[in-house]
Structure formats: structure tokens, C-alpha cells
């Protein structure tokens, strides 16, 4: 249900939470307040109409999402994952937002920026550091924190009516999981329609995917509720994407509770028809299936008569027809409507940017499909399924493995060939803006620029406080340890909530992971990564034991006890990774191999690499002397 006591249906609840467009008086007020608000935004955002002073605006535009239904997992849980694949200024911090109670009022115009407790302010879409400066969403965002000193408080882009009470939840760039075991994973997509953000000229939409996910976390305890609420808010107040262009103007969320999961796709409405609305569709995922979303829509045919498995916006087909992207074979019969074909702009960046990850994930989870690695056009060919039954029932650890994959032992193995260097580095740095050379790298699932990834696990047979678990890995998945956070914990460790990319902080578990992976990358990666993998295996085994003990403890621990258990574990993890750095440096410093039994053994380079780089064509041996002198030996 919606988290409100005075709404009886999705549309009625949306109307109660934010005002309808239907009354002309409200329209007039909206126009006035919008004009005032845009002026205020221009004056408050001197950094080029950016939502924080002097800072840029950028989204995590390359995320990978996995899902497994309750009949596809070993223990009957429902799981989803998300990798937040940003860039060098991403905000890796994770916070816990407290549950709150309010005294709601009615009759407030929907766009008055207001800090009163009976309005819920809407934050702009910011995913770079700091994503938010202000109160009410975690101590790390407070303006008094030293890492926020040079930034202005975040200015909201609007507000809607608050509800009487909200749930607690874990949050980062998007909502992660709330105290009722509602979980989410996000992946940005291309779309045929793009509109400006509300702080830019012509921008009238209020909602980004980030805030939609947070409001769903605050107000919903089921996936269906979350989908309906997000869709209705976006239709009523407008949706804008993570970028101003078609690459990134669409979004996908996998939304799950402890019983089922849905895929939610959204994009802006046609601004020539409705400037402040949205087009969206959601499809229920079969309980015995796994699913992969990798920066492109996956919902194809929509059954408009099956409301148990499909939900959608009112203008979904009308806008597709008006845009020239869909023509029904029979007028009025929409049974052949294909959402992805109609609204997706296909893969962005380059061919295989999406498809290779989808292929790679299904090769690990559902190899029996024997899916093709090649295709002509991913949108038009539709070579991959919406979802599929896995080879075997999966675990959270299987999802760890997928997120750490760089296509090992396939023709696309990122650790092979010259681009990987002598020591098999699978990471490929970004080249845009640094060279005139045109080209592209393969896009692996494991990615050096991942700010964080998580697997959300919901277990219906346990109390919510311990049934909901977030496996959180801050930093690149192949260089992180996943640690458990419990849905019922009443706080989160500072180890998770510190992460300024411009200032190293040894309290931060993100910095410990980032530091260690960067050191390993420069010190015989394939050898040093074995130390990383061993550390991951040991610490994640310890974490699994912790979750098992908590899950079978009888009476659920208190919120404080759950928080302390997670904090104690993540502190051990952080300290282990700082220690790991020292071990790697001692072992491989200056190209030598040092152990307790030998010091400074030469390791050299692999023969294939020496041959490839022309080692054999290097400086020749010295020429013999023309007049060879007699050698004199002194004994």
C-alpha cells in the first residue's frame, strides 16, 4: 500500500500527495510559482545552472542490473543488483534515511520550494560528489561536515505534499532498500524523447529517477505499489532523464519486494503534446527467472489486457503513434506493440555496449540458452530474452561473480591481448576528450569506475528487520568485499558514508578498496589480484556466516544490535584491505617477488608480450673488437 492513511487507489493517492493539473486556478498558480522558481534557480546556481554551486551535473550512465525471482534462488529469496558505474567524480557514499512522522496539510501549490515539514521537497538529479548538501537524509550530507564546506546547500526543484509517515531506507544515488524489504536496482537507458532538466531553460518536469525511487522507498512496502506510485508521480509532474540528450534520457528500475519483482521503464512524454508528463511501462518478472538490464530497455510486447503482469501510462501508445515509432497493423489493435522498438534509441556509445554484458551475464547464469555473441542491431534484432530460467538456482554470491566478470576465457576476455598489458589488466580507461584517435573498448561488466554495487535480498519467511539484506560493495566489484547491511538496522557506519574522491580518508571502506585496486593494477595485476580474490573469499565467507547467525537467532536482534554487527564487520573489512595494500607492495615492489622464504626474485615479463613489443629487436649485443687483445686472468 501507499504509505498514507487517506488514499484508496494509486491515482487517488497521487492526487492526495500532489495537486492535479485539472483546475485552471492551480495552473495559474503553477505558472507564477514556476517563473519565480526558475529565477531563483538561476540566481542560486551560478555554476552554469548546475544544481549545486560551481559543481557539474552528471549521472551514473552505465549501470548493470540483475534479478532473480523467488523460485530461481536457492533459498527462496527475491534478489536484485545494481552497479553504479559513474566516473571520476561519482559520489560513492551510502546512507541510511530515518523513518519520519509528519503533520500533513492540503491545498499547497505543487511547486513552492518549501522546507516546512508538511511538504516533501524534490531534489535535483545529482550523482557527482556531493550529491546532496542539507539535512534530513543522513549526517554525511550536513552542511557542517568538512567535506561539504565548499558547496552550497542543495536547492530543491519543487515539492509535493508530504504523507503522515515514511519508512527508513538505505540510499545512495538511488533508493536501495527500505525497512519493509523493498529493493531496487537502476540502469540508465537511451530513449527517443529527451527534455531539459528543471533548472535549464524550458525545463518543466519535476522528477528524476533518483527522487522517484526515494519516494517509493519512503511510502511503499510492495513492488507493485512502488511502480504505480513512481509512474503516477511522473505522469502528474513530469519526468526528465539523467542527460539532456537521448543517450540517458530513459531509465530502468528493477523493483522487488519479498514476493515478486518488476521491471519499470520510463522516459519523458512528448513535449509537443504534454510538457510535464511521462511515458512508462512495467512488467512482472516470472518467479523462476533471472533477468539482465544493461543500459537498454528489455520490455518488448505489452499485453494491455493483463494487468496482473503489465502496468503502463495512459498515453503510452498514443505518443508512440504520434512520434511515428509505432503503427498498429490493425487500427485500434495494439497487441503487436513493442515498447523497446518504439521508444528505445538502441545501444549508446557503441555496438555491444549493452549486448556484450547481457550475453556475458546470461552465459554465467543461463548458459543453456546458448545465446549468440553477435547481432546486427540489438534493438531491432531482439537477440536476447526478456528473462530466462537459470541453469541452477542462484545465490547472492553468484551475482557477485557476474559483477566481477570481464569475460574470462571467452574471445572477449579483457585480461588478454596487448591492451591488457603484460600483466593482464582488464580495465580500460576512458579516452573521450583525450585523443583524436577514434575507436572503442569492449564494455565489461566489471568496471574500474564503479562507485558501488549492491545486491538486495528479500526473504519472506523472516521478519523484515533481518529478512532484508543489502550486500554492499563500495568501489569496483573486482576490487571490493561485499558486506551485509540489515533492513532493520537503526544506523549505518561512517565507513560507508565517507567518500570524497578528492580527499583520501582511511576511515572510508570505499577508499580502502579503491586504493588497493589501484595499487594492484600497477603491480603485476594478475598476480596481485590473486591476493585480492583470496581476501574477498575470506571476508565474504565471514559475512555469509554473520548473516546466517542473525537469520537463525530466534528473536530478531534490535536495530542497534544489527547496526553494530554490520559496523564491526565493515571495520574489519576496511582494515584488512589497508593491510592488503602493504602485502601487495612488499610482495611485488620494483618488479621483484619477495616472500618469507625468498627476497627479490626476478619475475620479468611473459614471453608473448616480449615478442609482441619487439623485445627481440632491442639493442644488440656489443660488437666484437677488431683487434682482439689477449685475455689476462689473474688467479
Architecture overview:
The protein has 635 residues and is of the alpha+beta class. It has 15 helices and 20 strands. Mean pLDDT is 89; it is low at 1-50, 52-60 and 107-115. α3 crosses α4. A hairpin with a 3-residue loop joins β8 and β9 (175-178).
List keywords for this structure.
15 helices, 635 residues, globular, 5-stranded antiparallel sheet, alpha+beta, disordered N terminus, 6-stranded antiparallel sheet
Strand and helix layout:
Layout: H1 10-17, H2 24-44, E1 65-68, E2 78-85, E3 95-97, E4 100-101, E5 119-122, E6 158-161, E7 165-166, E8 169-171, E9 175-178, E10 183-190, H3 209-219, H4 223-237, E11 247-256, E12 261-268, E13 278-284, E14 290-293, E15 310-312, H5 316-322, H6 339-343, H7 355-365, H8 378-381, H9 396-403, E16 450-458, H10 464-467, E17 469-474, E18 483-486, H11 494-497, H12 509-521, H13 525-551, H14 559-588, E19 592-593, E20 601-602, H15 607-612
Antiparallel strand pairs: 1-2, 1-14, 2-16, 3-8, 4-7, 5-6, 8-9, 10-11, 11-12, 12-13, 13-15, 16-17, 17-18, 19-20
